Amino acid sequence: MPKTNPANDVLESDTDSQIDPTNNSYENLDYTPLMVVAVLETMRDRVFQKARISTTNRISAIERGSSKASPETETLFRGWLDRFQELEAEITTQAIGACKGIPIVEDMVALRGISYVTAAKVLSKINITQANTIAALWRYAGYGIGEYWVNNETGKIAGPVFGYRFVKQGETKVREFAAFDADETSMHIEKRRDQLLEGWVSPFNRRLKTALFTAADSLIKARSPYTAIYYETKEAKLQAGIPRGHAHMQAIRKMNKILLSHLWLQWREREGLPVRVPYAQEKLGHTTILERSTFGWPAIEAR
Predict the structure, then answer these.
(1) What is the pLDDT of residues 90-127, one digit of tens each?
(2) Closest CA to 112 of 257, 220, 240
(3) Where are the domains of the chain?
(4) Is 158 helix (H, G, I), strand (E, B) or coil?
(5) What is the rounded CA–CA span in Å between residue 273 and residue 152?
(6) Is the pTM of the predicted complex or chain greater than 0.85?
(7) Helix or strand or coil: residue 301?
(8) CB 188, CB 150: distance < 8 Å
(9) What are residue 157's DSSP bridge partners?
């Protein structure tokens, strides 16, 4: 079966992107306001928040008696816990301050249920200039479809048709583009939802997907207009016999894809970047249009 190169509009993993603030390379970076937010947000989550949780767990274990420590050691840990909490609160305040005034951030905060913290978590992980289509953003966020080799007997995914993987070169690992070495007599190609596969670089930004799940939870709790999509989809899935947990996740997927499509249009238009009619409308002839304004997105002032 012939193999084709992946679409040019598919964003690469965050592991080699300028927008990943944990990249070990600090050369030739463009510290735009959102890049600064990304650095602060990542420091909070991966340094101070992680240290706070770790220290809290140590203290809890001592309190339960499953770990032993002198009173002096416990006091030391509690002192650092207070310090980490202070640092986490301080950097959160700074990240929010850095967010305010950025047009797309203010647009997203206008949505019911979206706070500056939530907007920062989502927007700081996206480089909108790289997403030439809505589908590209969906895939980067973990809501895309890819081509995979599937075992004929088990129906399980064996590997991606194309993907990135790490290979060892001397003492270091390097990232390379590769095709899966498939047995075409026992496997076939199918389009499946993107997923994590051992030995392959994630085809999407896992931290962005987590941030979007948090955003979805906030939208549902605030009864945002987007929740109409969530509840309608969830009910349809339940009526089709899908277990409640799966129905919940599929409804979140549908709601977040609509949210991302609106975000893509709003942000690209704000930046003066080319936009196009959504695929379902342009190619499939769908006539139902979910206008951004009805969900709370503000109008973009004339340039």
Answers:
(1) 999 999 999 999 999 999 999 999 999 999 999 988 98
(2) 220
(3) 1-13+145-203, 14-123, 133-144+204-303
(4) strand
(5) 43
(6) no
(7) coil
(8) yes
(9) 150
